[in-house]
């Protein structure tokens, strides 16, 4: 199955200059655990719950610390035509649970490990991964 069949098309993102608190609130409000970080149309990073925990441990001030200080810069990404089974293995190798989905360099969605575990994500009669 292709990533386009399981990815989230609702793109909720963060700006690199917004605060960790703003990003965390958006994650909670929208029920997501990672946000692609954009500068205009370009994806420059990704911020996840893990990154927020790291900031917390480092005693970063969430109200003034910028997302850019804790995001993963230049993240790996998926394309809508990637096979979900191959992407699941790639995500395992990378140790990540979320990837932005880019098409022609444009952000078109997000895919999570949970999305890839949906019934049928790896094809009929085949186990995920």
Question: Can you walk through the features of this model?
Answer:
- It is a single chain.
- The protein has one domain (about 5-115): CBS-domain (Roll), CATH 3.10.580.
- About 25% of the residues lie in helices and about 25% in strands.
- It is built from four helices and six strands, in the order βαββαβαββα.
- The chain has a four-stranded mixed β-sheet with strand order 1-2-3-4. Strands 5-6 form a two-stranded antiparallel sheet.
- A hairpin with a 2-residue loop joins strand 5 (about 100-105) and strand 6 (about 105-110).
- The longest helix is centred in the first third of the chain and has 11 residues, at about 20-30.
- Mean pLDDT is about 90; it is low at about 120-129.
Name some characteristics of this structure.
129 residues; alpha+beta; CBS-domain; 4-stranded mixed sheet; two-stranded antiparallel sheet; 4 helices; disordered C terminus
Distance between the termini: 11 Å
Domain count: the total is: 1
Q: pLDDT average, as an integer?
A: 90
Overall, the morphology is globular
Q: What's the name of the CATH homologous superfamily?
A: CBS-domain
Name the CATH class. Answer: Alpha Beta
* Estimated radius of gyration: 15 Å
How would a textbook summarize the main sheet?
4 strands, mixed
CATH architecture verdict = Roll
Unreliable runs, pLDDT <50, ≥5 residues?
A: 122-129
Helix content: 25-40%
The quaternary state of the protein chains shown equals single chain
- By secondary-structure content and strand pairing, the structural class works out as alpha+beta
Report the order of strands and helices. EHEEHEHEEH
Number of strands: 6
Write down the CATH topology.
CBS-domain
Q: Strands of the largest sheet, in order across it? A: 1-2-3-4
Query: Which band does the percent of strand residues land in?
Result: 15-25%
Q: Number of helix segments?
A: 4
């Amino acid at each position: 199955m292709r990533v386009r069949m399981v990815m989230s098309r609702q793109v909720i993102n963060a700006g690199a200059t917004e605060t960790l608190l703003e990003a965390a609130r958006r994650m909670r409000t929208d029920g997501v655990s990672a946000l692609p970080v954009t500068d205009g149309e370009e994806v420059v990073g990704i911020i996840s719950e893990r990154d927020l925990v790291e900031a917390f441990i480092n005693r970063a001030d969430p109200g003034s610390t910028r997302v850019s200080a804790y995001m993963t810069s230049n993240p790996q990404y998926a394309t809508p035509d990637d096979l979900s089974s191959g992407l699941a293995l790639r995500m395992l190798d990378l140790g990540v649970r979320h990837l932005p989905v880019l098409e022609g360099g444009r952000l078109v969605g997000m895919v999570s490990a949970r999305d890839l575990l949906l019934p049928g994500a790896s094809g009929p009669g085949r186990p995920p991964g």
